[in-house]
Specification:
Elements: H1 19-24, H2 26-39, H3 44-47, H4 49-52, H5 56-62, H6 64-67, H7 71-79, H8 97-100, E1 103-106, H9 108-111, H10 122-127, H11 129-135, E2 139-142, E3 146-147, E4 159-163, H12 170-182, E5 186-191, E6 195-197, H13 201-208, E7 220-222, E8 242-245, E9 250-253, E10 260-262, H14 268-284, E11 288-291, H15 308-314, H16 328-343, E12 346-350, H17 356-363, E13 372-374, H18 394-407, E14 415-416, H19 426-430, H20 437-450, E15 454-458, H21 479-488, H22 494-504, H23 532-547, H24 550-553, E16 555-560, E17 565-571, E18 576-582, E19 588-589, E20 597-601, E21 621-622, E22 627-632
Parallel strand pairs: 1-2, 1-15, 2-5, 5-11, 11-12, 12-13, 14-15
Antiparallel strand pairs: 3-4, 6-10, 7-9, 8-9, 16-17, 17-18, 18-22, 19-21, 20-22
Helix pairs in contact: 2-7, 14-16, 20-23, 21-22
Length: about 625
C-alpha cells in the first residue's frame, strides 16, 4: 500500500473559483452533495460542463435573492478551513478484529427486564448473552448505562463513573463484561462527551459560582439586557440552542435538550478530565467506544451567528460552525493518542452531516483519529427527512452503497446499518404492507452481511420487528418527538403533525422487546411477535460470513444495478460469491451468469445436492424482496 499521508494540497477558494473547484474540495464536495441530497437533485446538476465552469461570484450574483448575500461567504469560510485532502488507497486491506466482527447494539432500557419493573437492566442483558452467542454476533455495543436523570434516555449523563440505578450496579456491569468476554465476545460502551446533564457536578458548580474553574467547562454568556439568546443557533430538539438561567442572568449552550449542556472542548481541562474518564473504563476491560455526535465537539471561536439559508437547507441554524469544527482533527487525535491507543481500543464515531470526503479525513488509517464512523445519508431518500411520512426507495440505498464501496478506499472502513436507537424501523419506512415485512427483513440482512464493511445489528432486527401503531402522544416518551409536536401543533393540523411523528419518531426502536412480560404503562398492549424465519436467516448468514473472509476482505464488483435490482460479486483468494437481490415487491428474472454455481442461501437451497441442480436458468424468477447467494464451484 502506498504512503497515505495526507498533504496540504487545497488551494484557497475565492469568488473567482469555479463550482467545479469547489466540488473538488473535500468539504466543498460534501457540503454541495448535502444540498443536492436535500433538494433531491442528481450529482450531474453540478458536474456538467456548464455549471461546473461557473465562477462562484457569478452564481452568488444570480442567487442573491434566494440565498442571500452572505451564503457564499459562510460556505467559503467553511471549505477554506480544511487544508488537507483525503488520500484514498485501493491497495491491500489491513486486517483488524473490528473489521471482521458483527456488532449488536443493545438499548438497555428496552432490551431485557430481569425484575419485572418494566425497565430493561444489566442482569437482563446477562441473561440473554447465550442467545446473542447463538445468534452469532461478535461484539456488543451498549447505549448509555451511566447515572442520568433520563431527560434523553441516558444521553444526558450526570455521573460517568456510576451506573444508572434502574439498570443495576457497577458490580452488575463488571459481571456483564466478564460474562461477555467468557463467551468470546467483546463489549463497547457509548461515549457521550459533547455534552453532560445539567445535573452533572461540573455544571452545578459552574452555575452556582461564576468564579468556579468549571465555568469554563461550558459555554456561558451574560445576558445583554435583551433577554434574547446570544446567537441564532437552533437546538436539534426544537427551539433555541440557548437556555436562560434567571438566577445568574446567564445563557448556556445546549445543542440538544435544555438539560444537555455542551462542553467547551477548547478548555484543556475538559479534555484532560474526559480522557481520564475514558481510561478508567478501559482499565476495566471495555474494548472500545461508540462516540456520540463526536464531530460536534469543536465549535467556531466566538460562536458566530448562523447563516439562515444554510440553516434552512440543513435543518438547523448555526450547524456550519460546529459539525466540522476548526479543531476537530486535533481533539480526535488527542483522544486516540492519550486513551485509545495505549489500550488497543476500538472507536466508531457518530458523525451526522459528514459526507464521504470528510469521513475519509477522520477515518483514514494514517490519520490516527477514528477507526470508523456512522454516516447517515443512506437512511433517507434524497429530498426527504426522517420526520416525514413517505416510502423509502431501496434503489437509492443500492446507489449509495455502490458509491461508498467503490470510492471510500481500502484505508477506510464502512459501518453497515439500517436501524439504531435514533431511527424508526427501516422495513416500515420501505413499505407499510406488513405482508412483505418478513421477506424484506431477510433481504436487508443479506445485503448488510455480504457487503464490504462492519455490520451493526440493532436489537430486534433479527426478530423482524417493524414500527408500532402508536395512537396518541401519551405513548411517546421521545423528547425529540415531543419537541417537534409542541413546535408544529401551533400552525399545523393535529392529525398531520402526529402522522409525521408516527413515521419518524425514535420511539419505535425503544419499545421493550417482545420477550419481556411487562411493559411500561405508556406502551401497554404494544406487542409484536418475533419472526422465527428472520432469526434463522440472520443466524445462517452470520455463520456463512464467519466461515469465509471473502465477505469481509473480498473485492466488490457490481453486476446489475437496474431499477429494483442489485446484483454484486464478492471475490476472495479462493472463493467467488454472487449476491442476487430483488429490491422490489414484484417478482423479477433472476441473474444468470455462466459456469457452475452452488446455491448457499435462498429459496430452493434445501435438496439441491449437485452442481447440475444449482445452475442458473434464464427463466427462473426471484420473488418480491428475495435474495440469493451463489458460490462458484471450482472446476479443478
Amino acid at each position: 500500500m502506498k504512503n497515505n499521508k495526507a498533504a496540504e494540497k487545497n488551494t484557497r477558494l475565492t469568488y473567482d473559483s469555479s463550482i467545479g473547484e469547489l466540488y473538488r474540495n473535500p468539504v466543498g464536495h460534501d457540503a454541495l452533495a448535502r444540498v443536492l441530497l436535500q433538494l433531491g437533485l442528481p450529482e450531474r446538476a453540478l458536474t456538467n460542463k456548464i455549471v461546473s465552469g461557473l465562477k462562484l461570484g457569478t452564481v452568488a450574483g444570480l442567487t442573491r435573492k434566494k440565498l442571500g448575500t452572505d451564503f457564499f461567504d459562510a460556505l467559503l469560510h467553511l471549505v477554506n478551513s480544511e487544508k488537507e485532502e483525503p488520500v484514498v488507497s485501493h491497495g491491500q486491506i489491513t486486517p483488524r478484529w473490528w473489521k471482521e466482527a458483527v456488532f449488536y447494539q443493545i438499548y438497555p432500557r428496552s432490551f431485557c427486564d430481569s425484575n419485572g419493573d418494566g425497565i430493561g437492566d444489566l442482569p437482563g442483558i446477562i441473561s440473554r448473552l447465550d442467545y446473542l452467542k447463538e445468534l452469532g454476533v461478535d461484539a456488543l455495543w451498549l447505549s448509555p448505562i451511566y447515572d442520568s436523570p433520563n431527560d434523553d434516555n441516558g444521553y444526558d449523563i450526570r455521573d460517568y463513573d456510576r451506573i444508572m440505578e434502574e439498570f443495576g450496579t457497577m458490580e452488575d456491569f463488571d459481571r456483564l463484561l466478564d460474562e461477555t468476554h467468557k463467551r468470546g465476545m467483546r463489549l463497547i460502551m457509548d461515549l457521550v462527551v459533547n455534552h453532560t446533564s445539567d445535573e452533572h457536578v461540573w455544571y452545578r458548580q459552574a452555575l452556582a459560582d461564576p468564579n468556579s474553574p468549571y465555568r469554563e467547562y461550558y459555554f456561558f454568556r451574560k445576558d445583554d439586557g435583551s433577554r434574547r439568546p446570544p446567537n441564532n443557533w437552533s437546538s436539534f430538539f426544537s427551539g433555541s440552542a440557548w437556555n436562560y438561567d434567571q438566577a445568574s442572568d446567564c445563557w448556556s449552550l445546549h445543542l440538544f435538550s435544555k438539560k444537555q449542556m455542551d462542553l467547551n472542548w477548547d478548555n484543556p481541562a475538559v479534555r484532560e478530565d474526559v480522557t481520564a474518564m475514558i481510561r478508567r473504563w478501559l482499565d476495566k476491560g471495555v474494548d472500545g467506544f461508540r462516540m456520540d455526535v463526536i464531530n460536534y465537539i469543536s465549535k467556531a471561536e466566538g460562536l458566530p451567528q448562523g447563516n439562515e439559508t444554510i440553516g434552512a437547507l440543513m435543518g438547523y441554524t448555526g450547524i456550519e460552525h460546529y459539525y466540522y469544527g476548526p479543531r476537530l482533527h486535533q481533539y480526535l487525535r488527542e483522544i486516540r493518542e492519550r486513551a485509545f491507543e495505549p489500550y488497543g481500543a476500538f472507536s466508531v464515531g457518530e458523525t451526522p452531516g459528514l459526507g464521504m470526503k470528510m469521513c475519509q479525513l477522520v477515518t483514514g488509517e494514517d490519520r490516527r483519529e477514528l477507526d470508523m464512523v456512522f454516516s447517515f445519508d443512506h437512511l433517507e431518500t434524497p429530498g426527504h427527512v426522517r420526520m416525514e411520512d413517505y416510502e423509502y426507495d431501496l434503489n437509492y440505498f443500492r446507489d449509495y452503497m455502490i458509491d461508498w464501496m467503490e470510492h471510500y478506499g481500502s484505508n477506510c472502513w464502512m459501518s453497515l446499518f439500517y436501524n439504531n436507537h435514533d431511527n424508526p424501523r427501516m422495513i416500515s419506512k420501505i413499505t407499510k404492507d406488513t405482508r412483505c415485512h418478513a421477506d424484506l427483513a431477510r433481504l436487508l440482512a443479506v445485503m448488510q452481511l455480504t457487503l464490504k464493511g462492519t455490520p451493526f445489528i440493532y436489537q430486534g432486527d433479527e426478530m423482524g420487528l417493524a414500527n408500532y401503531e402508536f395512537t396518541s402522544m401519551e405513548q411517546i416518551t421521545d423528547v425529540e418527538a415531543k419537541g417537534y409536536y409542541e413546535e408544529h401543533i401551533r400552525r399545523e393540523p393535529t392529525e398531520q403533525v402526529f402522522a409525521v411523528i408516527l413515521a419518524g419518531t425514535r420511539e419505535h426502536a425503544r419499545v421493550l422487546l417482545p420477550w419481556n412480560e411487562r411493559l411500561p404503562s405508556c406502551h401497554e398492549g404494544l406487542r409484536q411477535k418475533p419472526r422465527e424465519e428472520v432469526f434463522e436467516t440472520y443466524r445462517e448468514l452470520l455463520r456463512l460470513r464467519r466461515q469465509d473472509e471473502t465477505f469481509i476482505y473480498g473485492d466488490f464488483c457490481v453486476l446489475n444495478r437496474r431499477k429494483n435490482r442489485f446484483v454484486y460479486q464478492r471475490t476472495g483468494k479462493k472463493t467467488i460469491y454472487i449476491i442476487d437481490c430483488n429490491l422490489g415487491s414484484r417478482p423479477c428474472r433472476a441473474f444468470a451468469p455462466q459456469g457452475q454455481w452452488e446455491l448457499v442461501y435462498g429459496r430452493g437451497k434445501a435438496g439441491n445436492s449437485g452442481p447440475e441442480r444449482n445452475q442458473f436458468r434464464d427463466t427462473e424468477k426471484l420473488g418480491g424482496y428475495e435474495a440469493r447467494i451463489w458460490r462458484r464451484i471450482s472446476e479443478s
